[in-house]
Design brief:
Helices cover 74% and strands 1% of the residues. The protein is mainly α. The chain is globular and about 65 Å long.
């Protein structure tokens, strides 16, 4: 520990070099995966039950965020000259979309967890009592809560004083103390509570699935796979982000007070890595589509087969192509 009036400056060069290629990759994969997932979901809408409303809204939150990534790609590409060329208002809108995607995803994944819990643990009580209308009303409530939680973030400055060429994902050093208090409350209500609900639901579901033989084996396997995916999303994408975001803000508050620790640089790097992990949720969420219903997986397999045939067809003579097509199908 060092206790100086001025702490050594944390190097920020790591951010642009690290985030730029990840944003490009997530934009391409996420847009394709969510497009295929939403198309398949709408095609099988009547077969999926009430939970499809939450899966559809999960896809919408991803698309909302993915459409802002090209602007962040331009920003980090130009970061060597330190320029955000789209203005502070659009900077705040971009960060707002990120937060709505993050906490909207957490909210809808939690809803999916609760619905799975009710369908497996309390099927007779839930049968007929939960309708599409209920799912729509719950989804609207999630959107409203997430927007209200994220709205105060837009009132914090996103650039240094007298400088509109930066776009902070948190706020400037003058307001970092208040932002830390805000984000701690945000973490509690937007992440910790949904995490506890999800773990509680799936903990009970695992006990029920493992202790009964009356549940269909295919349903049991599908439920266990979905549980694994949701727990993986929370563990990989969300937990590191919230831990290191708050630690990084704490480090900035302590630095402002002249209290220095050697771990500040390591926390900053871990924070940037956690930003990448939380960004990946937009590309990983389509895995939920695949385990919502077997018809979606079958349709995606057909799309892959058609893509393979399109590649094979030009290079295979007509007499041989029918044999290739039959072997694929």
């Amino acid at each position: 520990m060092m206790n100086n009036t001025t702490c050594p400056r944390v190097s920020l060069d790591f951010t642009g070099r690290f985030l730029l290629p990840v944003y490009i990759l997530v934009f391409i994969i996420g847009l394709v995966a969510n497009g295929l997932g939403l198309k398949s979901l709408l095609h099988n809408w009547t077969k999926l039950g009430n939970v499809n409303v939450f899966v559809f809204n999960l896809g919408l939150t991803d698309v909302l965020y993915l459409l802002t990534l090209p602007f962040l790609v331009v920003y980090y590409f130009m970061e060597s000259t330190g320029k955000w060329i789209f203005g502070e208002t659009f900077c705040k809108i971009t960060r707002f979309c990120f937060n709505v995607n993050l906490y909207g995803s957490i909210g809808f994944l939690t809803c999916i967890s609760v619905y799975r819990y009710l369908a497996i643990v309390h099927p007779m009580r839930a049968m007929g009592r939960i309708t599409v209308t209920h799912s729509v009303m719950i989804s609207v409530t999630v959107w409203l809560l997430v927007s209200v939680q994220s709205l105060p973030d837009m009132f914090f400055p996103k650039a240094p004083r007298n400088n509109t060429e930066k776009c902070f994902d948190t706020t400037d050093n003058d307001h970092v103390g208040d932002y830390l208090k805000y984000t701690l409350g945000w973490t509690l209500t937007g992440f910790c509570i949904p995490l506890l609900i999800t773990l509680g639901c799936y903990g009970h579901v695992i006990v029920v699935l493992c202790s009964t033989n009356t549940i269909d084996k295919v349903l049991k396997q599908r439920s266990l796979k979905l549980m694994f995916i949701l727990i993986l999303l929370f563990s990989v994408c969300y937990i590191p982000y919230h831990v290191f975001r708050n630690l990084d803000l704490l480090a900035r508050v302590l630095t402002k007070q002249g209290i220095c620790y050697k771990w500040y640089d390591r926390v900053y790097i871990a924070r940037q890595i956690s930003r990448v992990l939380v960004c990946l949720n937009s590309a990983l969420n389509p895995l939920v589509y695949l385990h919502t219903h077997e018809d979606i997986r079958a349709q995606l397999r057909r799309l892959i087969q058609q893509a393979r045939q399109a590649v094979v067809q030009p290079s295979v003579p007509p007499t041989q192509f029918s044999l290739v097509r039959n072997s694929l199908t």
